[in-house]
Amino acid sequence: MLDSILAGFVTYTKSLGFNFGFLTSVYERTIWIDGISMTLILIAVTIPVSLVGGGLLAAALTSGRKYLSVPARVFVELTRNTPTLVQLMCAFLVVNMLISKALGGAQYNPFSPFFWVVAVVGLHIAAFHAEALRAGIESVPSATLEAARAIGFNRLQILWFVEFPLALRAALPAIVNNLVNLAKLTTVGSAIAVGEVTYASIMIWSQRDNVIELMIVILLLFSLINLLIARTGRWLENKLKVPGLGI
Amino acid sequence: MLNILTFSRVPSLASSTVLPVLGGIAVAGLLWSFFEPESAATLLVWTPYLARGFAMNILISICAIALGSLVGLILGALELSPRALIRFPALVYVQIFRNAPHLVLIFATTYIFPFEILVAGLRIPFPDWIKATIGLAIPASAHIAEIVRGAVQSIPTAQWEAAAGMGFSRSQTLRWIILPQCIKRVLPPWMNLYASISMGTALASLVGVNELLHAATDASTAVQRTDFTVAVYLTVLVWFFVYCYPVARFTQNLERRFAVR
Description:
The complex is a heterodimer of chains A (247) and B (261).
Chain A: H1 2-15, H2 26-61, H3 66-80, H4 84-103, H5 113-138, H6 142-150, H7 155-185, H8 197-208, H9 211-240
Helix pairs in contact in A: 2-3, 2-5, 2-7, 2-8, 3-5, 4-5, 5-7, 6-7, 7-9, 8-9
Chain B: H1 2-8, H2 18-35, H3 37-79, H4 84-98, H5 102-112, E1 116-119, E2 122-125, H6 128-154, H7 158-165, H8 170-200, H9 212-223, H10 226-258
Antiparallel strand pairs in B: 1-2
Helix pairs in contact in B: 2-3, 3-4, 3-6, 3-8, 3-9, 3-10, 4-6, 5-6, 6-8, 7-8, 8-10, 9-10
GO cellular component, one term (chain A): plasma membrane
Function (chain A): Part of the binding-protein-dependent transport system for glutamine; probably responsible for the translocation of the substrate across the membrane.
Domain ABC transmembrane type-1 (chain A): 36-230
């Protein structure tokens, strides 16, 4: 059933001048489908990492304590102003190698390429989230903070119950924008052999020379993913809107 | 008084944190070379090779932003066209390529374009770095189209009418009233985009363009020493930072200065 549908699709697209012949080969089809699901998994895992990291960095940046805010500021500036690919290479070829050496061999190293992609891309986007959240936190009116202090909230409670909810609403458009970039950045995983959709496509087109066909699929896939992220963001914005707050 | 205040906010590299940060990096580098003279000597030997690689990064980024700006300006104008037949293709292009990963576009241009073009019987080589440039210029043009469209649309239409009321002709209005405001709004996001493209040039290493990251990998493979590998990749990180950080600070200053007062 599936095979006949695929064969029909391949013949039909062939009449249009496209070469989707790899779909009839079980081996290549599996690589490709696995690549697409790996991309989706990467995005799904990295988004929460970036959000938690961004929240922590924003909290450190606005804490008013030098020993927290200065390291956070250094990290944010360093991450924002260097290429993700170079960070990934530094993490994978330098940090990962040093860890392997310290543990006495690569076979004892628990960190996989997948881990490094999630960590590097997640923290890279976290730095951008942090900047957006910081601006949101700083724009919370001082009267609101005084009111919170007056009813006995401590520093952390103010951050969690007052500043974060308001900052999140202000920062949401920027955060959604960052998440779109996050989805695009997961493709750097192909540089260290994480089998996501770009990597799988390279393997297929180096055999079949059907770059344009696979490229169309990749572009559509990312358009779809990013449309989904943008729509979800807008839905959240409407849902979280506080009447009269003006955000 | 107002003039003096405005003048004091003129962005300058020296007034911000750029010089202390860069100075700190230089001092850290000197200290490291004092304690690790052997690594530092090897790194010094490889520095011209790395510098040639970095020149390639700068070349690609400048060509890509120039090409992207040119195409993006035209696309932005098309997006503003009242005719749906002209507007629609431009909107589709912008939507697709704004959402496309840079790496994928670089792969696409590298594999799709031939390695040489035949023009009037002449074989003109089509090197990989130009393909990578085009791969970066495509998303850049989509971003610039959006920047231009947003800037022109952000100018209230009442200004056209007010200018006409004051006796400005249409071209004078555009020249003296609308465009200066557009430049103010376009410049900061345009510079952000330039910084982003400069960082994107590192992706060209994956298609074999001999730029900084590629050169670092070459160097680390040739020397085969752990301390040197660490040093050379950190050098790449620092060089990109030193190039992009001043641009970012300058953009922030510009944004502050151009903010509606």
